[in-house]
Amino acid sequence: MSRSAHPAGPRHADVLTDGHYSAPPADLNALDPKVWAHTVGRDADGAVTVGGLPVTRLAEEYGTPAYILDESDFRERARAWRTAFGADADVFYAGKAFLSRAVVRWLHEEGLNLDVCSGGELATALSAGMPAERVAFHGNNKSPEEIERAVAAGVGRIVLDSFQEIVRVAHTAQALGKRQRVQIRITVGVEAHTHEFIATAHEDQKFGIPLAGGQAAEAVRRALQLDGIELIGIHSHIGSQIFDMSGFEVAAHRVVGLLKDIRDEHGVELPEIDLGGGLGIAYTSDDDPREPHEIAKALTEIVTRECESARLRTPRISVEPGRAIVGPTAFTLYEVGTVKPLDGLRTYVSVDGGMSDNIRTALYDAEYSVALVSRTSDAEPMLARVVGKHCESGDIVVKDAFLPGDLAPGDLIAVPATGAYCRSMASNYNHVLRPPVVAVRDGEARVIVRRETEEDLLRLDVG
Length: 463
Ligand code: LLP
Fold this sequence. Notes:
The protein is of the alpha/beta class.
């Protein structure tokens, strides 16, 4: 949403939450390709279509709310990352953004690897046929059972996050008669320009081993001494929803600096570095994300340059995009239940989901866009706030948005760019049932994660 001073002074209908004024977009029926999945358009009746199917039909068939995922867009984005990094690098899709067995199969087919961070994600990956050697296992507190399962399954790498874990993984692997490939996750001390809760490379937080004060070097020393593990590289993830490449530049500089120190001290050149994920996507028209080929070029150049000046062989690079692959490929389809104009303020539009299917607005103050998708409208724009059905006033899906003034109960609206961290962070708050994920492709739709039922809820409640 564009933030501009209002030429005629304050007017209630366009005062945003943060006190700025905003003009409504010129055409409320337009769908900005930056925030919508690739195959999204409108049909002759004005209904939004995706993968060749009108949302009105999808709502009839699968109900609302529902996450509608554009499979060909997902595959295209996955392929774009793969192609951009080429044969000398590895792309690990971060499963935490959204994981299902269908997604694992698509990734496998498109030549990507997978980053998992729990036993549940590992189980999903393996059950869908992802070869274990293409899986990286993450987490700051992996349980002994998770470590054993990961080592026994033969995952390609475990990313070590603490001194205790170095020993745990080494002992587990030795007990199983294996030598586990590992990386050490370090914090490089970068302040990523993103929300505090999703920044991960400053020192005062739970992930990784600090480079500062020599802790990372000490972790490397210990890892190199243990027979059960083979140290293959250093890992750094600086945060999430980042647009500015300078944080990666500093991170790469410091990771390469550590590789150089390791070479100088141990005579070992570690063959890999992982720069994590975190690349931002467009949630509103104001966001300008970079294309995978630009990111690949920038990261490769940084690492190559740093290695040349340190006289190191350039290590194999890996990256772990999650949001940038799945985020833009899905939207959440809601039915409007009530429309409540509050004089002098804004109009509250209640939908049949809310913070249980998208916690990001409440948790990170995230901004989203929204559009009327079951029809077009020429009505005057109204400043709206899209809220859910939960018993909480912070149950907001879209804080500030313009919707047509004739919006009415029964209309379908959709929130784009909800593919990442929405279904995967969904809850059952108020015993609301988690929505399905419906994949569409070439005029066909199929449920890849079904809607939860009351039976599902009651099955867990063993009384
Ligand atoms: N690699 C590691 C080690 C990570 O911790 C993460 C995300 C990723 C890769 C993928 O980051 P991405 O490319 O998706 O930004 N729930 C928050 C995001 C938390 C991210 C956690 N780690 C959100 O909804 O914004």
